[in-house]
Write the structure tokens for this entry.
Amino acid sequence: MLSKKAGFEYFESGEGKPILLLHGIGTTLEIFKNQVDKIPGRLIAVNLPGYGNSDGLKHFTFENIYCRLKEFTSCLGLNEFSLMGHSLGGMLSIDFVCRDFNSIEKLYLIGTTPFFGSKSGSFEKEFLKARLDPIRQGKSMRKIANDSIKKLTGPNVSPELLTSLEEQMSSLTPQTWEASVRSLIGFNRKRELLSITKPCCIISGEYDKNAPPRTMQAMSKMLPNSSYYLMEGVGHMMQFEAPELFNKIICEFLEN
């Protein structure tokens, strides 16, 4: 059952140490549904601002999302908790621990990177063009979802899984989609990685083009207390594509 506090729609299950789950662009808290009751802890999956029934933000920025998340965790009485972030959610997790180091116990960074862009700026321009031009052309979010999802998954993904991912992306408004995409521009926490001494679980997908394994492995090497895992046969949506393997990795990390 979904609840709402401090402007965030969320789902909570399990007992023990709290883990806040943050999804990426185009998905919702549903991306973590296969982790419920499968990994230990008090799992709290939220819909980011503007997603689902979560309140929107006038300015969808990392700083504003951090402030809103801080209010949310305070409402739940969370003084220390872990962050599990996928894609944009992973970037938000890195950003959060850089702003509020003492509140975080562990980090789970899934299909994500500590920075976005290129020195020349050409990558950012192409990224924005590819994702925002369809909106300018009048394409619906369902059409955008249908065109995008197959590029984000591995080669063996089931039709049922693709349909579920399309439904998640289709639920977004064009405004939330654009705000989310634009929020990535300028994000860079690469210099702070060496100071993030919290235990970090780094998980990448073999076919992930958004956060390639080589990029995530390089990030893992810069984090002083990290464990790197490569999931073979999957793409960017790894916790959804191969939940059993994903959950096994999380449990293995917790045991070490």
Notes: The chain has nine helices and eight strands. The chain has a mean pLDDT of 96. The chain has one domain: 3-255.
